[in-house]
Amino acid sequence: MTGRRRRTARLHELPKVWLRHQAQNALAALGCLLRAPLPTLMTVAVLGIALALPGGLYLLTANIKLLATGWERETALSAFLTPDTTDVEAARLADRLREHAEIAEVRVITSEEALAEFRAYSGLDDVLAGLPANPLPAILSVFPMSSPDEAASRERLARMLDALPETDLVRHDAHWAQRFEALVALAERAVTILSVMLALALLMIIGNTIRLEIENRRDEIQIMELVGATHAFIRRPFLYAGAWYGLLGGLVACALVVIGLLLLQGPVSQVAALYQARFPLFSVSLPALFSMLVGGTLLGYLGSWLAVSRHLRAIQPI
């Protein structure tokens, strides 16, 4: 009974022993990296830059996409009325349109208001002063209701407005925003391709770094094999070294992205002020930081595993 209890106690201690062993290997691998600070710093810097490029571009495209979505929601359908439509008739038409279920708001821009706005933005005061009459018609700015399928709703409203007898021309102000969104989607696809290419580059960088470490410790590995060490035991410190490289590179990437956003905030705010708008850039959220750290660690571990699995087979005991 006493022997059985001892065996049971030892079985319960196995997870603790395993975790202690893993922690010792991880700390030992970190110590090896710190004992060569300059090579480690250079490798981590390269990894950090390679991780920061796709991460920063992704955040940039996400901000631009959000801005384009906001523009599209704020844009309206502009219905240019016929020249013989008076401002009173335009107001009555606006009242009828406000009762439509898919219309949130209708604003009336009278012909005089349209002329004043055109004069303010065009700078053609002399030319406009010489005209015998106001050539601009009244305009209705129609804002659709928010819906899951806003594009289809806008198209239906555009066709409905175009069929009205008082309407001369309907302009869909969101068309340019939709084209802009298409360009943003293209940029997102390019960022995805760049991320895949940089991930492969990271695997090669870490693999080459671990390969050099294996060559430097060839004699030590051969002695370990002579005394019966398994490949899993020999492989473990190198795997932790690759994971540390990836984690440290992820930390550098997070720092670079945060610094880049802070540097861009001032110029972006100045550009937004020219358009009388506010557009603060996203701060890097905790999920984004965590994704960069986990991604860097996994790439480091995978690159190390590929390199160690390949080169250990080439090392034969003395």
Structure commentary:
By secondary structure, the protein is α+β, with helices and mostly antiparallel strands. It has helices spanning 2-34, 37-74, 87-98, 111-122, 125-129, 150-162, 175-216, 218-226, 231-274, 286-312; strands spanning 77-81, 103-109, 139-144, 167-172. Helix 9 (231-274) packs antiparallel against helix 10. The mean pLDDT is 78. Keywords: Cell cycle, Cell division, Cell inner membrane, Cell membrane, Membrane, Transmembrane, Transmembrane helix. It holds the Pfam family FtsX. Belongs to the ABC-4 integral membrane protein family. FtsX subfamily.
Question: How would you describe this structure in keywords?
Answer:
elongated, Cell division protein FtsX, 4 strands, Alpha-Beta Plaits, 318 residues
Ends apart, CA distance between termini: 47 Å
Q: Average pLDDT across residues?
A: 78
Overall tally of domains: 2
State the major sheet. Answer: 4 strands, antiparallel
Transmembrane segments: 41-61, 190-210, 243-264, 284-308
Membrane topology: Multi-pass membrane protein
Keywords: Cell cycle, Cell division, Cell inner membrane, Cell membrane, Membrane, Transmembrane, Transmembrane helix
Function: Part of the ABC transporter FtsEX involved in cellular division.
